[in-house]
Structures are given as structure tokens and as C-alpha cells.
Automatic annotation (TrEMBL):
Name of the protein in question: LisH domain-containing protein ARMC9
Domain (ARMC9 CTLH-like): residue spans on this chain: 55-186
Pfam families in the cross-refs: ARMC9_ARM, ARMC9_LisH, CTLH_Armc9
Subcellular location, principal: cytoplasm
Assembly behavior: Interacts with TOGARAM1, CCDC66, CEP104, CSPP1 and CEP290. Interacts with NDUFAF2.
Top-level division of the source organism's lineage: Eukaryota
Domain LisH: 450-569
Transmembrane parts of this sequence: none
Function of the molecule: Involved in ciliogenesis. It is required for appropriate acetylation and polyglutamylation of ciliary microtubules, and regulation of cilium length. Acts as a positive regulator of hedgehog (Hh)signaling. May participate in the trafficking and/or retention of GLI2 and GLI3 proteins at the ciliary tip.
SUPFAM superfamilies named in the record: ARM repeat
């Protein structure tokens, strides 16, 4: 075939045969070319590899011997591939020593005193190299002393540079240079046919990497759009609920009952986005006819929902086995994929089915008494596995049925408390552990356990320095503290360190993170029902502190602080403030599922080329048969609407509170 190709292609073929030492084949090919009247280029053979490379090597060595710095490095940069100069550690070290050779050449080989101008020029050239390309080796112990060379007046007598001026140093360096050049030019004479093959393979590899990266980006965008869709769907369900209330109100007006502006305001606040709620609640006059309807038409758009299919069933036995026995990287990818199933699934039947499958197959081994269980991943030596396990537990705790599953016994609670106090390496791990515990505090039995375990003392200690905490940690710590302070046992715990608790809460009143204010107010209002804490608060001038915030707070904040001041100045226990700790059967729980965006923030791992992740990993390697099961929804508790004027007096979680759900 080579004979039929143009002359350059024929030469390429001959080049490869010669390089691979197919001598008989080359002779036969040459003979046949002559018979066919297609003479070969005279340079075919050993001269392919020798002529040009030998000349370059000779010129480089000559420049080395003559101390001709500029000629040497011009040839060096022209003929030594940049990938070798920049990527090969031996080449980098050799180049460093070559620069030293030329910098001290005149000091070693000049007869008499070296020419000062020429010496300064060489030293300046070396100094420029150290400040630019040579800076990469400044952290290497071997080369560190040589960075002082340009600044030493007489290097020949300096003990740090004694080795450079020994007779053997230059010949040894020259030998290294010659060996390096021989290797480089042998590699560079690789036949063009082989080079074409390698370049094509590299091109394909780069293209595959680009396509893989595009796929990862597409999946990430898909998750973002899915979360937006879920938000729209949640708004739709909220709208349906409000509509039902309004229909009831219209029926009431037929009977002669009036709708108050306050009621209309509370309905509209539930309909608008978080950013608009505060301004609506305090700046819009709902007594003017048409105001509410105009605002609603401007903000609400119709939402068209489609049927959402159920996700494929999984082989949970294999999943749990690999979560316990697999590599840390596989464990992390599995924990991530299982979490994404929850966080990106559609609220409603799809998400409920996913969660019910996890629970019915005891995914986290909450019912297991084995020493090796999935829950033990919370104490893994791998930071990534620990973090991803904490994220998954937090995702479970974000759902009412997930909390019920995790709260079957206090084993999970104790593990989370231990992790919270021990975790000092990973902020996100601690955030997710804290988030899960805060959601646990919606359940009365777990509140009791956390109070008995002294978690209030830990929270107060952490909140002494709020500026060192992330926004998430600060918000969930204060919200957890408030939930625990709503219980009489929690208040009694606070009474033991009343001065410290009051100091921490009063400092938090003025914190720049305004999201924490409802929880600070709720905690203060609650603990001030205890006479001993009221006395401590009066002694430290709490009323004056509170009145300072009345001057600069918004209307809602002002009304809440007024309630706190009233509580501070009361002499008797208000009816119903102290709860009984004896009844652990009823939960002060929102019947709402809040899946936070923070659960999927700042992912630590990304799949490499050929690695599976997310839903693709689950459905490719762990597809099961009929592991999805139906579920019975628990009957929700009757909602108790929070007016916004009074401090919080029921347990909440920040996600639910921000979304304006009743508590």
C-alpha cells in the first residue's frame, strides 16, 4: 500500500520499518520499489535518526564548553520540547544547574580577573531565571542555598558554594547533559507514523474527557432545574391550601362574618416569596380595596404539573454490603447518589416512595444490632465518607417520616451528638450533623434526651463567639437552643448557668444575621418564665438592653421585644408557659417536609472518566426488583398559626420557618 501512496507517505512507512528494525521487510520493500520504478529517498535508513540530532547535540555541548550562555539556551528552548522542560523533574533540575554553570563560568575559567561587565551580565541573567522560571524550585532544600548566589560578593570562598568550584563538578554536569540529550533526541526521532498514531489517540482521549465534563455539567444543570421545579410545585400546593381557606372565608361572609385586614395580610404573606414577605407585612395597606388582588396577580403565575414517574427500584442488600465493605470512594459516591435521590425527587408520591423504600429496607441500619453497620460510616476515617454520611442523615431528618425512622431509638441521636462534639476538621460535616439534631428537636422524646445529655451547655459555649460560625451553624444552633428551652427541663438547665445564657442571647440580639432573631427572641421569652432567670436578667439590666433594640428594630421585632419585656417584668408564671415533661407521646412537630438547598452544596467528589455517579450509578450497578413500597401518610397535626407579633413558643426548624409554614 505504501508503494501506491505519494512519496512522503512512502518515506513515512520506510521510517517506521527502519525504527522498528524490520530489516528483512525493509530490504524486500526497497527491492520491490526498485523493480516498480519507484526509487527511494537516499536519506532512508540510519540517517533518518542521526544527521540533524547529532548536529544539535554537538552545538549544545560546544556552547556548554565555551560558556556561551545565550547560544546554549536558544538551542535548548528551540529543540527540547516544552513538555519535557516544564514537566520532567530531571530536566528542571538539570536546567537549574546549567544556569549555575554559566553564571560562574568566568569565575572558574578566566585567566586573571574576569571582565566585570560580562560577569555582571551572566549573574543578572541567572538572577532573572531565579525570579521567573527557577522560582518553582525555591521550596526544594537541594536548591535553596543557590538563590543567594547572585548576592554573594565572592562565591568562590563561600562555604555554601565550595562544591561548585571543585574540578569534578563541571565534567559531571557535562556527562549528565550528554546522557540527557542522547535520550531526548532518541525519543524525538520516533517515526512520523508512530507519532500520528499517538497524537490521534491523545486527541480522542481529550475529546472523551471534554464530553465527560459536558455530561457532568449537564447533570448538574438538570439538578438545578429539578430543584426549581420542586419549588414551583411546593408553591402550587401552598396556593391550593390558601385557596381552600379563602373559600371557607367566603362561605363565612355569607353567614355575616367579617374578614379582618390582619387575616388577609396573613394569607398574602404565605403566598409571596421570602424576599417580599417582610415588606408586604409592614408596608402594604390591605384595608384599601383591590390591594391584595393586584399584588397577587402580579406575583403568581399559573403552574402546570405533569405526572411524575416513580424512580426504579434498587437492590438494597447489595447497596448496604458495598456501603460497609466497599472502598471509601465507592462509599462516598453511593452516599451521594442516595442523597440526591431524596433531594432531587419531586415532592409528593415520587419522594415519598423513595423515602419509604429506604425505610422499609432499613438503609441506614437503624434497626440493626450488628457491629458493622451503615450508621458506623459517621465515624469513618475518611473525611469525605463522614461528611456524605452526615449529609444523608440530614436529608432523612428533613422529612417528617425520615425523622420518625431515625428516632426509633436514641442510637442515632447519641452518634450524632458524639460526632458534633468531636468533629473539628470538616465544617460541612458539623453543619449537617447540627442540622439533623435541630430537626430531631421537633420530637419531644428526642428533646428530652438532648437536654439530659447536656446539649444546651454545648450550644451556649459555641454561641459565645458567633462571628467564628458559618451562617448555617449559627442559625441552626440558635434554633436548636430555642427548641430545647421551650421545655421546662430545658429552662431548668438554663437556670444553672443563667448569667451566661442571658449574656449570649443578649449579644445575639444585635447580630448582623437577622435570620436568627426569631429564635433568640423565642429562647429569651421562654427562659424568662423562670423566676430565678428573671431576677438574673433584671440584675444585669436586661430591660435597658432590650429597649435599645426597640429603637432600631423593624415593627415585628419591636412587638416581639415588647412581649419579652412584659415577660421580664411579670411576677407570676403565665398560664400554659411551662410544659409537662411527663407526656412524651405527642410531638410538637411541623408536619412539613423541608429539603434545603444546603444539603447539596460544595460537593467534594467529581467522577473521573469512566466512573459512574448519581442515579446512573444506582440504576446501572444496583437495580432491584419491586423494592419500592407504598406508604400510608400520617395524619398531620392541627396547625397553630404563629402571628409574628409574639415570640416563637412552639418548636420550629429554620427551613420551615423561612418558608412561612404554620408552626
Amino acid at each position: 500500500q505504501a508503494i501506491l501512496l505519494p512519496q512522503p507517505s512512502k518515506v513515512v512507512g520506510l521510517q517506521y520499518l527502519d525504527f522498528a528494525e524490520f530489516e528483512d521487510t525493509l530490504k524486500t520493500f526497497s527491492k520491490e520499489c526498485k523493480l516498480k520504478g519507484k526509487p527511494l529517498c537516499k536519506t532512508v535508513g540510519g540517517s533518518f535518526r542521526d544527521s540533524k540530532s547529532l548536529t544539535i547535540q554537538k552545538d549544545l555541548v560546544t556552547a556548554f564548553d565555551n560558556g556561551d550562555q545565550k547560544v546554549f539556551f536558544n538551542l535548548w528552548e528551540e529543540h527540547i520540547p516544552s513538555s519535557v522542560r516544564d514537566g520532567d523533574s530531571f530536566a528542571q533540575k538539570l536546567e537549574f544547574y546549567l544556569h549555575i554553570h554559566f553564571a560562574i563560568y568566568l569565575l572558574k575559567y578566566s585567566v586573571g580577573r574576569p571582565d566585570k561587565e560580562e560577569l555582571d551580565e551572566k549573574i543578572s541573567y541567572f538572577k532573572t531565571y531565579l525570579e521567573t522560571k527557577g522560582a518553582a524550585l525555591s521550596q526544594t532544600t537541594e536548591f535553596l542555598p543557590f538563590y543567594a548566589l547572585p548576592f554573594v560578593p565572592n562565591p568562590m570562598v563561600h562555604p555554601s558554594f565550595k562544591e561548585l568550584f571543585q574540578d569534578s563538578w563541571t565534567p559531571e554536569l557535562k556527562m549528565k547533559l550528554e546522557k540527557f540529550l542522547a535520550l531526548i533526541f532518541k525519543a524525538s526521532n520516533t517515526p512520523k507514523l508512530f507519532t500520528i498514531y499517538k497524537e490521534n489517540g491523545q486527541s480522542n482521549k481529550e475529546m472523551l474527557q471534554q464530553l465527560h465534563q459536558q455530561l457532568v455539567e449537564a447533570e448538574r444543570r438538570s439538578m438545578t432545574y429539578l430543584k426549581r421545579y420542586n419549588k414551583i410545585q411546593a408553591d402550587y400546593h401552598n396556593l391550593i391550601g390558601v385557596t381552600a381557606e379563602l373559600v371557607d372565608s367566603l362561605e363565612a361572609t355569607v353567614s355575616g362574618k367579617m374578614i379582618t385586614p390582619e387575616y388577609l395580610q396573613s394569607v398574602c404573606v404565605r403566598l409571596f416569596s421570602n424576599q417580599m414577605r417582610q415588606s408586604l407585612a409592614h408596608s402594604v395597606d390591605f384595608t384599601r380595596p383591590g390591594t391584595a388582588s393586584t399584588m397577587l396577580r402580579a406575583s403568581l403565575a399559573p403552574v402546570k404539573l405533569k405526572d411524575v414517574p416513580l424512580l426504579p427500584s434498587l437492590d438494597y442488600e447489595k447497596l448496604k454490603k458495598d456501603l460497609i465493605l466497599g472502598s471509601d470512594r465507592l462509599k462516598a459516591f453511593l452516599l451521594q447518589a442516595l442523597r440526591w435521590r431524596l433531594t432531587t425527587s419531586h415532592p409528593g408520591e415520587q419522594r415519598e416512595t423513595v423515602l419509604q423504600a429506604y425505610i422499609s429496607n432499613d438503609l441506614l441500619d437503624c434497626y440493626s444490632h450488628n457491629q458493622r453497620s451503615v450508621l458506623q460510616l459517621l465515624h469513618s476515617k475518611s473525611d469525605v465518607v463522614r461528611q456524605y454520611m452526615a449529609r444523608l442523615i440530614n436529608a432523612f431528618a428533613s422529612l417528617a417520616e425520615g425523622r420518625l425512622y431515625l428516632a426509633q431509638n436514641t442510637k442515632v441521636l447519641r452518634m450524632l451528638e458524639g460526632r458534633l462534639k468531636e468533629e473539628d476538621k470538616d465544617i460541612i460535616t458539623r453543619e449537617n450533623v447540627l442540622g439533623a439534631l435541630q430537626k430531631f428537636s421537633l420530637r419531644r422524646p428526642l428533646q428530652t434526651a438532648m437536654i439530659q445529655d447536656g446539649l444546651i451547655f454545648w450550644l451556649v459555649d459555641v454561641l459565645k463567639d458567633p462571628d467564628c460560625l458559618s451562617d448555617y451553624t449559627l442559625e441552626y444552633s440558635v434554633a436548636l437552643l430555642m427548641n430545647l428551652c421551650l421545655r421546662s427541663t430545658g429552662k431548668n438547665m438554663c437556670a444553672k448557668v443563667a448569667g451566661l445564657v442571658l449574656k449570649v442571647l443578649s449579644d445575639l440580639l444585635g447580630h448582623e444575621n437577622h435570620e436568627i432573631q426569631p429564635y433568640v427572641n423565642g429562647a429569651l421569652y421562654s427562659i424568662l418564665s423562670v423566676p430565678s432567670i428573671r431576677e438574673e436578667a433584671r440584675a444585669m439590666g436586661m430591660e435597658d438592653i432590650l429597649r435599645c433594640f426597640i429603637k432600631e428594630g423593624n415593627a415585628e421585632m419591636i412587638r416581639q421585644i415588647e412581649f419579652i419585656i412584659k415577660q421580664l417584668n411579670s411576677e407570676e408564671l403565665p398560664d400554659g408557659v411551662l410544659e409537662s415533661d411527663d407526656d412524651e407521646d405527642e410531638d410538637d412537630e411541623e408536619d412539613h417536609d423541608i429539603m434545603e438547598a444546603d444539603l447539596d452544596k460544595d460537593e467534594l467528589i467529581q467522577p473521573q472518566l469512566g466512573e459512574l455517579s448519581g442515579e446512573k450509578l444506582l440504576t446501572t450497578e444496583y437495580l432491584g426488583i419491586m423494592t419500592n413500597t407504598g406508604k400510608m401518610r400520617r395524619k398531620g397535626l392541627a396547625n397553630v398559626q404563629w402571628s409574628g407579633d409574639e415570640p416563637l413558643q412552639r418548636p420550629v426548624t429554620p427551613g420551615g420557618h423561612r418558608n412561612g409554614y404554620p408552626v
